[in-house]
Amino acid sequence: EIVLTQSPGTLSLSPGERATLSCRASQSVSTAYFAWYQQKPGQAPRLLIYGASSRTAGIPDRFSGSGSGTDFTLTISRLEPEDFAVYYCQQYGSSPYTFGQGTKLEIK
Amino acid sequence: EVQLVQSGAEVKKPGESLRISCKGSGYSFTSYWITWVRQMPGKGLEWMGKIDPADSQIYYSPSLQHHLTLSVDKSISTAYLQWSSLKASDTAMYYCARQDFDHWYFDLWGRGTLVTVSS
Question: Residue B100: CB partners within 8 Å, gap ≥ 6?
C-alpha cells in the first residue's frame, strides 16, 4: 500500500497570500494517477487537480499542481476566502487507492 | 443534471444489517465505475472499493473486503454498499463517487450517507 504523507497538517495564512501544500508518497506514483481534492465542512470532497497538474473544469487558475515520483505540490497563488478548507492528496494508480491525511488551510 | 444521489442517514445497532444506496443520473451510468469512500468522524478519506456497473466486477480494499459487500442494479442506475453485521466502528460518513474509466480520477461525488452504529 502506498502511504501519502501531507505537510503541514495545518497551514495558517491570510487572504491574498500564497499557499504551498506538500504530499510525499512512500513509493513512486505515476503522475497520471495523482489528484488533489478540497473538502469544506459538511460537504463532499471536490476534485481540483488530476494527473498531478490538470485542473478540473471550473477550478480557478490560482490552483496549480506539480510534482512527480514521490513529491507533489498543490499551490494556491492568491488565497480567496472560499479557499480555506481541508485539502487531500490521492493516488489512484495502485490498489488500494490511498489518500493523504489532509492539510487544513485556515485563516490567520 | 449530472449527479449522484445517496440515501439518507441511518442509525443502527451493532449486529444489524444495512444497505445504503447511490443513484446516478444525467450521465451513462455504465460508463464509469462507482467507488466508495469512508470518512470516520473527524478523520480523513479512506477508499473502500469500486464496482463496474456494466458487469458488476468488484475491487475491494484488502483491509475492508471481508466486512462489506458492493452491488449494483444497472436497470435503475443504483449502486449499493451493504453490511451484514454492523459494528460501532462502522460509524462514519460514506461517499459514493464516479470514477472515470479512462483517467481513473473521482470526478463526481454524492453528498454522503451518515451511518451511526450505537447500542
Answer: B32, B107
CA distance B13 to B7: 18
Alpha-carbon gap, residue A52 to A41, rounded angstroms:
24
Q: What H or E segment, with its residue span, contains residue B108?
A: strand B106-109
* Cβ distance of B112 and A90 shorter than 8 Å: no
In whole angstroms, what is the distance from residue A103 CA to residue B73 CA? 37
**In contact, B20 and B81? CB cutoff 8 Å:** yes
Q: Which of A35, A45, A92 sits opposite B109 (nearest CB)?
A: A45
Looking at residues B71-80, what average pLDDT do you find? Answer: 97
Burial B96-119 (b: 16+ CB within 10 A, else e): bbbbbeeebbbbbbbebbbbebee
Q: Do A44 and B95 touch (CB under 8 A)?
A: yes
Per-residue pLDDT tens for B22-72?
Answer: 999 999 999 999 999 999 999 999 999 999 999 999 999 998 877 889 999
Task: Tell me which amino acid residue A108 is.
Answer: K
On whether any CB of chain B is under 8 Å from the CB of A56, the answer is yes
d(CA A53, CA A67): 8
Question: What does the mean pLDDT of chain A come to?
Answer: 97
Q: Inspect the interface and report whether the beta carbons of B45 and A45 lie closer than 8 Å.
A: yes
Beta-bridge partner residues of B3: B25
- For residues A26-47, average pLDDT: 96
